Amino acid sequence: MFRIKPRVPRKVLALGLPTAWGAMAITYKLACPLAQQDSLGARVVTSAVFFAVGTGLILHVRQALLRELKQVREVAGAAQSVLLRPLPPRIDGLNVAAAQLSADRDARVGGDLYEVIATEQGVRVIMGDVRGHGISAIGTVAAVLGSFREAVHDEPDLGRVLHRLDRALARHLRERARDEHPASGREPDNPVSEEFVTVLLLEIAPDGEITALNCGHPWPYLLSGTSVEPLARTDPLPPLGPFPLPAEPTPLPCGALPPGDSLVLYTDGVEDARDARGRFFSLQAALIGAVHHHPATPQLILRTLFTGLLRHTRGRQADDIALLVLRNDRARFHCDPLGARGTARPATHNPQPTNYL
Questions:
Q1: Angle at 184 between CA 178 and CA 188, to 5 degrees
Q2: How far apart are CA 301 and CA 57, in angstroms?
């Protein structure tokens, strides 16, 4: 049988200790004969007593604030682990590495979002960026990610997934607008009318073919050998929120992700990061430097980029930062025309198997 520990003693102690210190000081001032004297020695003793009482009160308040801050950070960390849950290192043959760094150090939760899920259509990926950062962005991140995690399994078409995200965001903004109505007396951190979310949806088929839908988000970089190029250069759709989506958004074919190649998805906080002189961080140059280290695993790329970003900004970035690296580690297969019913079998023309890890 579970027993709930009473929390009353802690509350009583929190209120009783300052009261006891104050009562002690007042009692000394009113009842102690030494406090009534006007000599130098009496003044010194009285000052020392009140200094001790004041120091004790300050230390008590400081400890209470530190405990409260610790609890807030624990709650924020728990919220982050639920919203941006740690991704497994491998998803359907893809090597995965991801990390997020909030601009609000106390909150530890930002407005960036990402997820990678294996479905019947292939691996589906989302990378997004909510306007604003910190605690105020948590609700929007939860609405978009929750809708994505359901829609990717229900909708065979990537355009329908995007429409589900748009409807989920619209519902969330309507609810927020009611909560932030002037009658509620709350002052909104980010007005609903100015809220928007940039979203990039990718679908990586089992054969490596990539299709994408981009709503105002930076295009990822494709890493092939030592080549680092944007996955696409077409203009994206507007961000979700302020503008309606096309009735039937058409996913854009973006080529293939062969075994050994990688994709680097990021939020605009990466390329907007500045140093002390106001110079922007060059993500493409950092990636070119990273791919010259062999093997350029997603974990190595991620570590190299975050090290470069923190060195560039000296740990004082102004916006949230999120990075997601995917590498195709699937084995090479080809259809043997002599095989039974044309089933796929591992290629045997090379006696030495190729290791992509």
A1: 70
A2: 50
For 329, residues 6+ apart whose C-beta sits below 8 A from its C-beta are: 90, 93, 94, 95, 259, 260, 356, 357
Task: Identify each DSSP E strand in the chain by its residue range.
Answer: 90-91, 94-101, 112-119, 122-130, 197-204, 209-215, 221-224, 227-230, 252-256, 262-266, 321-328, 333-335, 344-346
**Cα–chain center distance at 290:** 23
**pTM of this prediction?**
0.72
Other C-beta atoms within 10 Å of 115: how many?
20
Six-digit token string for 279:
């110079």
274 contacts 281 by C-beta, under 8 angstroms = yes
**Residue 150 contacts by C-beta under 8 Å, 6 or more apart in sequence?**
164
* Residue 292 contacts residue 284 (beta carbons within 8 Å): no
DSSP 8-state symbol, 338: T
Long-range contacts of 224-233 (CB under 8 A, 24+ apart): 224/258, 224/261, 225/291, 226/288, 226/291, 226/292, 228/284, 228/287, 228/288, 228/291, 231/255, 231/263
Residue at 242: amino acid letter = P
Taken in order 151, 146, 114, 219, is the CA torsion positive or negative? positive
Contact 262, 97 (CB under 8 A): no
What b/e readout covers 312-347, taking b as 16+ CB neighbours within 10 angstroms? bbeeebebbbbbbbbbbbbeeeeeeeeeeeeeeeee
pLDDT tens-digit series, residues 60-101? 677 777 776 666 555 555 556 667 788 999 999 999 999 988
Q: Where are the beta strands (DSSP E) in 132-268?
A: 197-204, 209-215, 221-224, 227-230, 252-256, 262-266
316-341: pLDDT as tens digits: 887 889 999 999 998 754 333 333 33
